[in-house]
Amino acid sequence: MSNNPGNTYILQMQDIVKDFAGVKALDGVSCDIRAGEIHALVGENGAGKSTLMKVLSGVYPAGAYQGHILIDGKEARFKNPKSAELAGIAIIYQELILAKNLSVLENICLGQEAASAGVIDWGKNIDIARRVLKQVGLEVDVTIKVGDLGVGQQQMVVIARALFKRARILILDEPTAALSSKEADVLLGIIKELKAQGVTCIYISHRLGEIFQIADRITVLRDGKTVAVKDKVGLNEESLIALMVGRPLHNLYPKDSRTAKDVMWDVREWTVDDEVTHKHIDNVSFQLRHGEVLGLAGLVGCGRTELVMSFFGLWGKRSKGTMTLNGEVLEARNPSATIAAGLSLASEDRKRYGLVLEQHIQSNISLASLLKIASYGIVDEAKEIMAADGYTKDLRIKASSIHQKTVQLSGGNQQKVVLAKWLMTKPKVLILDEPTRGIDVGAKIEIYQIINDLIKNGVGVLVISSEMNELLGICDRILVMSQGKITGDMPSAQATQEKIMAYAVGK
Amino acid sequence: MRQWRQYTMFAALLIIWGIFAWLTHGVFMSPRNLSNLFLQTATVGILAIGMSFIIITRNIDLSVGSGVALAGAVAAYLQVNGHAPAWVSVAGALGVGLLIGLWQGFWVAYQGVPAFIVTLAGMMIFRGLVLGVTQGATIAPLLPDFKIIGQGYITSSVTIGIGIFVGIALLTAFFLKRAKQIKYGFKVKPLVIDLCVQLGILALVLAFFAVMVANRGLPYAVFLLFLLALIFHFVAANTIFGRHLFALGGNPDAAALSGINIKQRVLVLFAVFGLLTGLAGVVMTARLNAATTSAGQGMELDVIAACVIGGTSLLGGEGTIAGAVIGALIMASLDNGMSLMDTNITYQYIIKGMILLLAVWMDMQGRKNR
Questions:
Q1: In chain A, which residues touch B (CB < 8 A)?
Q2: Which of B187, B239, B253 has the CB atom closest to A353's CB atom?
Q3: pLDDT-flagged residues of chain B (< 70)
Q4: How far is A321 from chain B (nearest CA, A)?
């Protein structure tokens, strides 16, 4: 058992119950963390992971929940996040919380600057900051602005900040969600490194591959209860998923058998420059055929998202090249004309580009199709309700009614609302950028089934994803991008993760 | 949530009225004073209707006070110095308003200058133009046909007719809406409760008309205010334009990707608001029977306060027309009531400021507890 550095518990959570207006988000959760281990916490969305972490990090103060938290065997009662931090618990959220306009140094010591009489002792801070940066393997000038760093490096800064505050227990909530697989690998390496230095980690992720790569033990939550605490040894992805969803899932990637037919979408010599970032889409050509799901792989920053945004005129300054849809040339470079011509894009960032969160499901679904259900500029609400109702049922969006605000929905249901919005535009081709990011296994499978149905109904689908397994599982053909160019194009039957990776790094 | 907000604001309005009625021994609630109060609300109310859209799209307009003065000054100049008929004066004021809106809309939407700056500049520019048009003097008196817009009353018999029509329309709309909700399977409250609320609203509306009739009839300016409120309420809820404004205020990135031409929408909105500014200028100038150099000074703050009190979120994407009108009524009630009581102007400002602060604070508490 060299993986288990000891059996002393650094952190114990006992029978934690937390309810919101009578609804139990946590219903007697117990979870013991050994000192120096990497402990994975898994479960579907809504299983209670985030609530548990909020209890642990003092967001919900002692008294707002029932049960006990023990640190080093002694009961801890956190009044607020600050007191949890002082006890050595640091939480690294999914979304990065950094002041992008400040330097790496300022971000690292923000809130706990070494100072005397209110005057910051920069020399001392720099020394500590350099030390913690070294711990996370980030070699950058401490005076560089955080905004100038890549997302992966920013993630390291966040962890360095936690170490600066002498965190002993690091909670990482989906830390790789925004990272490319290469950056994610680096991060996982660092976490192992930190473990070797005695830092305990609680690792939350939907990416089971990562969990099997680094975790020592795994706690599975379902419906607010602990259903299993197990050693990684003896588990596999399938058995873990079965524990998470409460039933065995036989096919993670449902895919119809089908054959590709004639070309429906033809992009040729597509070139876009962006003067601001000096990024570049370089002579991209590809074809999407009737009856196939086309995948687009590539590392984050390779230009995948920029490429599809440029079809709508939302990225880049100048564009050359041609695009035809069912033989018709598409000249326009603005969203409304492109959507009208039959191309729709569900963005990777559903909160930023997908939903008007404060509005209800009905107006979100109809937003891009108002012209279709209006006459003389006046919206026919009857038609709107029928459409929204229909899609809500078809896509099985779980909500109290179509008048529920989208901000209150789970990630998977939000994603379905975004899909419904774009389906209502009756697209010929639907582009899905990271359609399953941050949503749970059950919802993922439902999204894959929706994609299957779309193909059956003659819609072309282009899927962009960082998860290679997903692309291999659901696509018929896979394109690989690297530095703004298409470097690979292969049927998925002949593709492997290694092949895709080789093309993605540009060989 | 929005509905709840409107009800609480309406309740606040009634409480304020009750307090003033008590403090003034009933003078505040006399038909004559209430009619006066609604007349006082007209200018700020018309502006608040437009301003709430501006704020919903995450913009602001600080220039309305100067804009109103400029439109009024041009209207007065045309009839007094230019001997133009009343309708030409009105058209002139609306034209000035439209130009103001297009000018500011161009800078905000197409040049990307923050609305705060564009309209702060506008506030100074238009005030300068007011001084130019009036040559620093008051322009008066105005034509009777023009004055009627701000001072005239619809005859009592016609007012009664309008009241009956509105009452029937309200009830019809209620039953149509309810039938539609049931048809599409939405949850509806029991008919008795819904009907009671509806009858309560009807009673208030009829009381309003009764008060107007008891005085001298419905003022034209008040009629105009409610007509505009109705039109823009419809625009907000049922037109593509209105939907687009809420969407781009709520999330501009998502709105752009959904094919909404944000720049064009914002330009059109500023143009529409310009027209409303022109109209408010006409109403204000007609009521005062004069165009002065200092007209409308500080009015932008009353208008913004009315919107905010009425539940318009400065973060964008949220707000209602009814709320804005209620907000304007609250602001005017404070002015009117404290003037009746002869409250020192020092306290008038302080109390208005405190009410604004409290209203927003209460709103934030309400949101937190949601």
A1: 312, 314, 334-336, 338-340, 345, 347, 352-359, 363, 366-368, 370-371, 374, 377-379, 381-382, 385-386, 389, 401, 403, 421
A2: B253
A3: 1-4, 366-370
A4: 21
The residue behind tokens 């973060």 is B315
B243 and A335: CB-CB below 8 Å? no
State ipTM.
0.86
How distant is the alpha carbon of residue B291 from its chain centre?
21
CB A152 within 8 A of CB A183: yes
Query: Can you tell me the distance from the alpha carbon of A266 to that of A326, in angstroms, rounded to the nearest whole number?
Result: 8
B293 and chain A in contact, CB less than 8 A? no
- Chain Cα centroid distance, residue A359: 23
The SS3 assignment for B37 reads helix
pLDDT at A44: 77
Whether B136 and chain A come into contact, CB under 8 Å, resolves to no
pLDDT at B327: 94
pLDDT class of A5 with cuts at 50, 70, 90: very low
* pLDDT the model gives residue A2: 39
Which neighbouring-strand residues pair with A173?
A204
Q: Residue count of chain A, please give it.
A: 507
Q: Which residue of A has its CA nearest to B179?
A: A382
Q: Which residue has the tokens 């999914």?
A: A94
Characterize the bridge pairing of strands A38-42 and A200-204. Answer: parallel
Residues in chain B: 370
Give which of B26, B36, B289, B259 is closest to B138, Cα–Cα: B289
| Pair of tokens at residue A129 | 């900051």
CB atoms within 10 A of CB A393: 9
User: Smallest Cα–Cα separation from A497: which of A301, A286, A297, A254?
Assistant: A297
pLDDT in tens, B139-158: 989 999 999 999 999 999 99
- Cβ atoms of A28 and A15 within 8 Å: the answer is yes
What CA–CA distance (Å, rounded) separates B72 from B66? 10
Contact residues, chain B, for A363 at CB < 8 Å: 243, 246-247
Residue of B241, B259, B318 with shortest CB distance to A368: B259
CB contact under 8 A, A335 and B318: no
Distance in angstroms (rounded) separating the CA atoms of residues B166 and B178: 18
Which sign, positive or negative, has the C-alpha torsion A383, A399, A93, B365? positive
**CB B328 within 8 Å of CB B37:** no
Residue in A335, A377, A385 nearest the CB of B184: A385
Distance (Å, rounded) from C-alpha B299 to C-alpha A448?
56
| Cβ pair B257:A345 closer than 8 A | yes
Q: Position B203: which residue type? A: A
DSSP β-bridge partners for residue B28 = none
Cis ω for the linkage preceding B141 (within 30 of 0): yes
Preferred mutation among B181, B183, B188, B257 to probe A, highest tally of A CBs within 10 A = B257
A356–B257 CB contact, under 8 Å: no
| pLDDT average, residue stretch A64-89 | 90
pLDDT at A343 over 90: yes
Q: B261 touching A, CB under 8 A?
A: yes
Q: Which of B184, B239, B247 sits opposite A367 (nearest CB)?
A: B247
| A-chain residues near B256 (CB < 8 A) | 314, 335
Helix (H, G, I), strand (E, B) or coil at B240: helix
Instruction: Quote the minimal CA–CA distance from A275 to chain B in Å.
Output: 19
Distance CA B37, CA B17 (A): 11
Provide the β-strand partners of residue A14: A68
